[in-house]
Design brief:
It is a single chain. The longest helix is centred in the N-terminal third of the chain and has 13 residues. The protein has a domain of about 110 residues: Alpha Horseshoe (Serine Threonine Protein Phosphatase 5, Tetratricopeptide repeat). It has 14 helices and no strands. Helix 5 packs antiparallel against helix 6, helix 7 packs antiparallel against helix 8 and helix 12 packs across helix 14. The two termini are about 25 Å apart. It is mainly α. About 5% of the residues have low confidence.
Length: about 270
């Protein structure tokens, strides 16, 4: 089973931005300040004022046990209420629960309905997940071209996993016309930001010369960087390349990796 994405926000995960309206934004700010009860009041007010995401965030608090005992059944009820009112965040999370059979019947069709409905609202995680369901034919007819379209939608919002999946689609010609150059462009976006898979794919591209001019020094350098980020496959590739480089080139490859710096993910798609 591939790993599908759900959303965390504010104090739940400060590194991931979330879409929210006034009261929900105030609730997130309260969480950041450590005021869980105040956050709940803001989320409740937001839901009562018509912002369905308010119930979603209260559900997240129950699911994660923040400021309360962990209560998955209450979380499901809140996600259901929020999803019924059109919260893309709740639809995506509840869809994942149907996909995995977490306190609800496992139901791929219902999962796809919820997740792909959320994707139509523009939510990046939902678009990525809907693409996975389409690619695998889970709950929907298999359609790799539609999967790529959803990954493109998510990639335009700098969704790292979606950009990598786009790269793989162009590399393999699945759902799109094969283009090694476009694949490399996608992997350059994620690899340039320090993503291990993007770095590893760049290493393989420079090793093979697919989409770029063959360059064993850069291939070793990118494999070295990916290996340092925990990719065993990259370590194996790096060590293989080490046997193919002379002393000067190996020193150049290590210098490339040593001097390399990650940059923020750019906004340019393929």
């Amino acid at each position: 089973m591939r790993i599908l994405k759900t959303a965390f926000c504010g104090a739940v995960s400060a590194s991931i931005a979330c879409v929210a309206l006034a009261d929900v934004s105030a609730g997130i700010a309260a969480l950041e300040a450590g005021n869980v009860s105040g956050a709940v009041e803001e989320f409740r007010a937001g839901f009562e004022d018509g912002d369905a995401d308010g119930a979603f965030f209260i559900g997240r608090l129950f699911e994660m046990g923040l400021g309360t005992e962990r209560d998955m059944r209450s979380a499901v009820e809140l996600y259901s209420a929020a999803a019924d009112q059109g919260s893309a965040l709740a639809q995506n999370r509840l869809g994942l629960m149907y996909l995995n059979g977490e306190l609800v019947l496992q139901d791929y069709q219902r999962a796809a309905e919820l997740i792909c409905s959320a994707a139509e609202s523009g939510d990046a995680n939902s678009a990525f997940n809907c693409g996975l369901l389409l690619a695998d034919g889970q709950g929907v007819d298999e359609d790799t071209a539609k999967a790529v379209a959803y990954w493109q939608q998510a990639a335009e919002q700098n969704h790292v996993a979606a950009i990598n999946y786009l790269g793989q689609a162009y590399r393999d010609g699945e759902g799109v016309e094969q283009s090694y150059e476009t694949a490399v462009k996608n992997f350059s976006r994620t690899g340039g930001a320090g993503n291990p898979l993007g770095l590893f794919e760049l290493a393989k591209a420079y090793q093979s010369g697919n989409g770029v001019e063959r360059d064993f020094i850069k291939a070793h350098g990118y494999a070295n960087l990916a290996s340092a980020r925990g990719m065993d496959e990259a370590r194996i590739l790096r060590d293989t390349l080490s046997t193919q480089l002379d002393r000067d080139d190996l020193e150049a490859a290590q210098r490339f990796a040593r001097e390399w710096e990650a940059a923020p993910l750019d906004q340019d798609g393929p």
